[in-house]
Hints:
The structure is a homotetramer.
Chain A: E1 5-11, H1 13-25, H2 31-50, E2 55-64, H3 70-80, E3 85-92, E4 97-106, H4 108-120, E5 124-132
Antiparallel strand pairs in A: 2-4, 2-5, 3-4
Amino acid sequence: MDNVTRIGISIEPELLEKFDQMIEQRQYTNRSEAVRDLIRKNLVTDEWEKGIGTVVGSVTVVYDYDQHNVVDKLAELQHKNHSLIHSASQVRLDEHTCLEVIIVQGSPFEIKDFTDKVQATKGVNHAELARCTMK
Amino acid sequence: MDNVTRIGISIEPELLEKFDQMIEQRQYTNRSEAVRDLIRKNLVTDEWEKGIGTVVGSVTVVYDYDQHNVVDKLAELQHKNHSLIHSASQVRLDEHTCLEVIIVQGSPFEIKDFTDKVQATKGVNHAELARCTMK
Amino acid sequence: MDNVTRIGISIEPELLEKFDQMIEQRQYTNRSEAVRDLIRKNLVTDEWEKGIGTVVGSVTVVYDYDQHNVVDKLAELQHKNHSLIHSASQVRLDEHTCLEVIIVQGSPFEIKDFTDKVQATKGVNHAELARCTMK
Amino acid sequence: MDNVTRIGISIEPELLEKFDQMIEQRQYTNRSEAVRDLIRKNLVTDEWEKGIGTVVGSVTVVYDYDQHNVVDKLAELQHKNHSLIHSASQVRLDEHTCLEVIIVQGSPFEIKDFTDKVQATKGVNHAELARCTMK
C-alpha cells in the first residue's frame, strides 16, 4: 500500500485490550490491518444487502455425482448463467460425493438467484454462497 | 468516556471514503464511534462462539396465545431456567399473535439451549436470539 | 391448530436419523413441529431481505446509562420513530450498564435504518436486531 | 435416491401456501427436495458450531496480488496447513485483484483458525468461509 491516509481513533483502554488480544490470536501484523478488515467486512454486507453494483464471490456445492444427472444439470445451470460465472473447479470427497466451487461475479440479486437454483437442483446437498467485493 | 486511549490507523483513501459514507448515512458522531462499534460486534461473535464467560441478550418469541397452552409452557420453561432470566415483557400484535421478549444473562451455551427449547415449544412460531455482551 | 393439511415427504434414512437426533435434543414434540419451524425461519429471512410487507421484531440495546445523555438520545430516537415502536423495557445489568429491548413493527427497511441509528448513538455499546414475522 | 423413507408432516394451509410459493420461485422439483434442504442447512450450522467431526467447505480470498508478497504468504499458509487443504484455484478479476478459492476439509475449529489467519494476511481484502458437510 503506497498511498495511505492516517486517522486517529479514540478507544476505551478495556476495549483496546480485548481488541489487541484478538489481533494477537489471529496473527494480524498490526491494528491498522485489523481495523481495515472490520471496515471491509461491513462494506461487503452493505453492498450485498443493498444489491447494487457488481460483486464477486463463490458458490460452494456438495452433491452426489451419481444421482439424478446432477452433473449435467449443474453444467446446464452454469451455461444459462454464463455471464455470472468466471470458472468452476471440482474435487471428489469420497466415492459418492463431489465438491464444486463456482466463482461468480455480477449483481448481488442475480448471484443469489443463481445460488437458490443450484441449491434447488435434485442431487445437490448444499450450496453455500461466499460474498465478497472487489475492493 | 473520561478515560480514552488514542491510536493511529493507516487506511487507503478509497476505503476511508467508503467508510465515511457509511458513517454519514448511519449518522455516527465520528469515526472513533464507528470503529469501536465494529470492534465490539466482532467481540460479541467471538465470545458467543467460544462459549465462555457471561453474556447477555434477549430471546424474541412470536406465538399464537390461544394454542396448545403455549403461555403456560413458556412460563414453565422460564421457571425451569430462572437463573438465566432477567425479565420478560409481552405485546399483543393482533387477536391471535403475541410477541414476548425475554431478557437473558448467563453462559452462551445455556442461553442457546434455552432458545432452542423455546423454539421447539408447540404454538411458538419464532424464537430469535439477540446476542450481546456486557462490555 | 384446528385446521391442518397433511403432506408426505420422502427423505433418505441417514438424513432422517440425524434430523430425529436434532428433534430429540431440542425436545420437539414431533417432526411436523420441527419442519414447520424450519419453513418459518426460511420465510423470515426471505421477507426481511426482500424488504416488503410488515414485519415484527426487537432491538436489543446495551448502553452505559451515565454516558453522553444516552438515555435521552434513545428516548428522542424512539419518539422520532414512534410509528415503528410498540413498547420498550429496560433492565440494569450492573452499576454502569443497562439493557433495553425495543419491540418494533413496520417495514424491514425502516426497522433496519432505526437499528443503525440506535447503534450509532454515542454511549450505545450494542444494538442487535431480532427479525420475526407475524405469521 | 433409491433408498428413501416416507414421512407425513402436518402443516397449516397458510404456511404451506407460502412454502409452495418459495418452492416455485426457487424452482424446486418438489416439496421433499425443499424440506430436505432445510434440514441439511440446519445440520450444517449445528456441526460447525459444535465443532465436532469432519466438515468440508471453501475459503474465498480476494487480494491485491502485487502487494506485500501476498501470493507467497498465502502459499506458505496453505503449506503449513496442508492437511486441511484439498486444492485451490485462482481467477484474476482486474489488473490488481485476484480471487482464490481454497477447498478445505477437516475439523471446524482448525478450518476457522486457518480462515482467520488468511484474513489477517497483509494484502488480503476478504476471506470468506463457506461451511458445508459431506452428508
